[in-house]
Amino acid sequence: MDSGGLVSSAMMVTLMNNRMKDHPGKRILLDGFPRSEENAQDLVTLCGKPELALHLDCNDTILLERILKRGATAAQKRADDNFHTALQRIRTFHKYHHLTMDFLRE
Question: Fewest CB atoms within 10 A around its CB: which of 5, 42, 49, 52?
Answer without folding.
Answer: 52
